[in-house]
Amino acid sequence: MYAFFKKSLSILIKSIYAGIMIGIAGTVYLALENKMLGSFLFSLGLLTICICGYNLYTGKIGYVLSNKLSYLWELLLTLIGNFLGTFLVGNLISLTRFKVYKESAKILVQTKLNDNLLSIFILAFFCGILMYLAVNNYKKGSDVIAKYMNIFLGVMTFILCGFEHSVANMFYFSAANVWSFQVVLYILVMVLGNSCGSIIFALKDLLKGEEK
Questions:
Q1: Which of 128, 168, 179, 209 could, after both became Cys, cross-link 194 (CB 3.0–4.6 A)?
Q2: CA distance readout (Å), 9 to 18, 36, 45, 50, 119
Q3: Hey, what domains does the chain have and what are their CATH numbers?
Q4: pTM of the model
Q5: Spatial CB neighbours of 150, under 8 Å, sequence gap ≥ 6
């Protein structure tokens, strides 16, 4: 029981750290008018998560089919920790001189909330594909330059395309302070879309492994 609690706490803490990094990445994106530069610097969040071994839901969900049933518990803790980390950063930022970013966050999230759920799901689906490919290619890539390029290009592509990243949006909704039943529903749809995109592309690698 102690071992289970210790492992669960470790997963949760690493997930909170990942949420904090995504929150910091989201802050720099809100701070810059140049979205190309903003998306490039946002990549630091995922890069740090991968290097430090933190737990990001969109980086882990793709491996659900190749793990034991207990992995579902790890995913749940990861999602909770990611939310806590992004929520913390979003609310702490509002207590600083950076609170002006709240208006930028409101504009950003209002566009999302004015969209329909099918659109949100599809955009989240494509984001899930990119996140799985970025993280998986980082993990398995042998070329150092290619490993890092996959992180930066994957993140920049999903941001500039306007695809929906559930954890990043947890930060934006927190920074804008607009949490509601509608927001929770949209986040859940984003989580589902991210999950489906990641799992479908991970399935190809799983089947390839079984053929060997």
A1: 128
A2: 14, 37, 22, 19, 36
A3: 2-211 (1.20.1080.10)
A4: 0.94
A5: 133, 134, 137, 138, 141
Burial class from Cβ neighbours inside 10 Å (0-12, 13-18, 19+) for residue 101 reads: buried
Distances (CA, A) of 186 to 134, 197, 199: 24, 16, 20
For residue range 166-193, what is the model confidence (pLDDT) as tens digits? Answer: 999 999 999 999 999 999 999 999 999 9
